[in-house]
Amino acid sequence: xxxxxxxxxxxxxxxxxxxxxxxxxxxxxxxxxxxxxxxxxxxxxxxxxxxxxxxxxxxxxxxxxxxxxxxxxxxxxxxxxxxxxxxxxxxxxxxxxxxxxxxxxxxxxxxxxxxxxxxxxxxxxxxxxxxxxxxxxxxxxxxxxxxxxxxxxxxxxxxxxxxxxxxxxxxxxxxxxxxxxxxxxxxxxxxxxxxxxxxxxxxxxxxxxxxxxxxxxxxxxxxxxxxxxxxxxxxxxxxxxxxxxxxxxxxxxxxxxxxxxxxxxxxxxxxxxxxxxxxxxxxxxxxxxxxxxxxxxxxxxxxxxxxxxxxxxxxxxxxxxxxxxxxxxxxxxxxxxxxxxxxxxxxxxxxxxxxxxxxxxxxxxxxxxxxxxxxxxxxxxxxxxxxxxxxxxxxxxxxxxxxxxxxxxxxxxxxxxxxxxxxxxxxxxxxxxxxxxxxxxxxxxxxxxxxxxxxxxxxxxxxxxx
Length: 466
What we know:
Elements: H1 5-19, H2 24-34, H3 39-60, H4 62-70, H5 92-97, E1 112-115, E2 125-128, H6 130-146, E3 155-159, H7 162-165, H8 170-178, E4 181-185, H9 191-204, E5 208-212, H10 213-225, E6 237-241, H11 247-257, E7 260-267, E8 271-276, E9 282-284, E10 289-294, E11 306-313, E12 324-332, E13 345-352, E14 356-358, E15 364-366, H12 368-375, E16 380-389, E17 392-399, H13 407-419, E18 424-429, E19 444-446, H14 453-458
């Protein structure tokens, strides 16, 4: 069942947002205008919003107030974005330990408890408000418009976070259909179920597809293995999120679905952060987020250099995230948006530090160093690398019909060449590889903690040779 576009876009969706007191469409109208501001005017808008956020944090969040007092920072005296650096950064552990001192319980519209997915190894319970919800929704709607897809047009979600799965009752099903949304469960992607997903895609004829990079790629790989040529003439874009998108995944998705792929960058605690344009540029949600890129000592890196993303959520009044260390490694572009927007441009996102592999000698390597080894083995259908420590790497493999017994030795030799001859490689052949608790299928999981010099080295990974 599909609802007429105009009914979904101009009646159902606005009524839902008003019923939940989310100012999504007023904020969307602001975003459609503000994206065309000059960079200087956009940063002036950031400054105005920053003053409001600091005032909220000072008046309603004791932990932030103590930090401001210690730094001798008065919100009313902030006249430049650089003044924000007078405050020390905050991390996930501090947000968890001081939650009661961070939440503005009486924030207009209410404060709602949520939690991060825990893929970084540090789950966090936090609160968000209606303003943050509106920012996320309006930001995604604007980003879809860059690709010719409008809210209310059919969209397929390949999703599986527990909060969604707990609400799959008839009310949610009816709501999704009224909004022209079809949700396919990323928690249960067996071959048989994926056959049904492919049928559902062709029946639903979406304008866009949205899901975890690995889950959408898994579905695309299944379609290719079955020789299935999808007929999706209305499809404009495949949007990936939740984890790094590797180039081999982008190529696969483009070939199978027949459209370009747009990667999204964000997190549950900070929210929707950036989205790719048809020119291949990742544009920051500059009206809602101030992004600093810092080295291991907390000093801003030079333009174009890699560093840790430290973010201030300008719509995080319910629980202000101010100079929040995300653990994501990014590099800003020195080029402007090719369409003339003033939004900041992110050149590269490498994902969390735990997405790196660490050699036995301590050298940090991008996850692709291990992925390339597995990709070169023809008999590997699916894989997952789990680095327990610098001397022990577990390799989970789902073999395809080209698997041969000597391929185990090829995997061991290839990974030892990258990680060190003294590293023990344990190859496990499995029927299926279970997803993470969040529903994501991660290629690389590292339990090697990065700190100090290692964290600094992660800001400047060595280029991969192949």
